[in-house]
Design brief:
heterodimer; A: about 450 residues; mainly alpha; 3-stranded antiparallel β-sheet; 19 helices; disordered N terminus; B: about 160 residues; Immunoglobulin-like; 2 domains; 5-stranded mixed β-sheet; 3 helices; about 25% helix
Amino acid sequence: MFLIGHGISVRSDLPIPEWLFGWAATMVLVVSFVALAVLWPEPRLQKPTWRPLPGGIGRGLASRPVEIICGAIGIFLFGLTIYAGLRGTESTTANFAPIFIYVIFWLGLVPLSVLFGDVFRAFNPWRAIGRAVAWVARTAGRTELPAPLEYPAWLGRWPAAVGIFAFATMELVASNGDKPDSLAVAALAYSAVTFIGMALYGVDRWIDRGEAFSVYFNLFSRLSVVETREGEVGLRRPLSGLPRLESLPGTVALISVMIGSVSFDGFTGKRPWNSISPDIAQFFQDLGLSPQNALEATFTLGLIGGVLFVAGFYWLGVLGARSVGGGFSARRLAHEFAHTLVPIALAYVAAHYFTLLLFQGQGILYLISDPLGKGSDIFGTADTQIDYTLIGANATWYWQVAFVVAGHVAALMLAHDRALALYEDKRQAVRSQYWMLAVMVGFTSLALWLLSSANT
Amino acid sequence: MSRNQRIGLIVAAVLVAVLAFVIASPGDDDEGDQAAQTTTTPQAETETETSPTETESSPTETEAEAPAPTKAVVTGIEIRAGEVVGGPAEIRVTHGDRVLLTVTSDAPDDIHLHGYDIEKKVAPGQPAKFRFIAELEGEFEIESHVAEDAGRDPLVGTLIVEPR
């Protein structure tokens, strides 16, 4: 084995014991059964309420000075990451770049988005640079910039799906994916792609549809009660943000990548994968690949398999829902229910990675004092150690189960509400829900199984 | 269905959940036994001797019942020609156990136990002795820094600490 998988985690969670796994899986079924009976008979989430924060706070939070400060912080952190990656030590855990990218940015922004709304939009360095460049060009040239190209309708969220898949490959497959300099180079290459996209289609259009991380964190922020609307921050009813997700091509693909990549990360610790992967790697070696490349090819195959499995399972549910009638095409149904998978994706990320964020995230304390890992001590925190006693195995298991079940419940509510809005016939709405319910129970059970000691 | 019926159904579901949880959750006794049996690993020579507890290890937060006594776990990892004899070791202990892990190698090396963050030098004829109380739960990697610097797989073993 070469260094592959989660290069930054030197501690991993113990698997959930089988009894707790069985109990939690049973609970998911009970919850689903009760949900079918007690959920509301009229759609409630489709027309959201939104109220600005009182006292002008909402307007202040979304004002130009705040935007500029947040953007500047984002650009500074981006620059520091690139600098540390290129100039710092090559040790993964002693360099600012890998921990910041994989833990603080990739994992830390998820709970922040769910709690406080689309935080990344404010701090997004690419958006800030794009807007600054546009402002400078307008001011210096004293003319309006030429209008950007029309964003092709068929492109939808496909660039974001491809971007997140590439990031997952970097994280889970590439053997140098945890090396600071490779990460810095990858970040620069991604920046180039983003700047080209923004130049072609306009800053905000590319950020909304094509820029992978903006789209990714925006999906999670739709679970938040905080929403910025027309330059003002306000509050909305829980879960009312997701039903307004525009149905665009590539959305199902993006969410499949999100769930599929986490599933694959969990699956690599399971017996079925560990018994089959050496054979696949051997096959690639026989084709003439080096052992390391053969392993990377094997993991790429596994990652693609995970994504296809998730997408296929969702489409199966959609085809089932179509069979109850109502005259909707499978494509239409797939898009109408895509948003209901977002809480499930969140549950996967939360249950799999919250201890990684909790423990490895503490690394940022010593890294801000010594970002290059070369012995500086800027804030006097360079000697801080990671406190692994924060949470024990038992508490971890209960949190994992709680995340998974909560995600399942939220998904059920969203699907139920959408079905009521979509079908004129109430009985058809309920019958279509049997299929969606099967999909969600499937995903939730898979999440629990991946976390459990069953069949490891 | 009326509002009260809905609430009643939810209450019933919660009761079922609690009851199922109580029935499903195992007593601590068999958990403790299980952990003691699995201490022997095929790769590393492991001797387990039970001795009365005298460590200052803190009890876990969950059970109030008397926990199984902590053990002393003596185990070893042998590195020969850059490879772990028998493959990377899997060392299973229970929270609070006192562990003595001896790493021997036929070449100079730096061995790092993550999480507990103990780093020891090892050389031919000079084994590295890791002595600690297993108070952090989870799976922790034991790595060779020489292998890591050489671009080989640095993993020499995994320490698995299960809750009591």
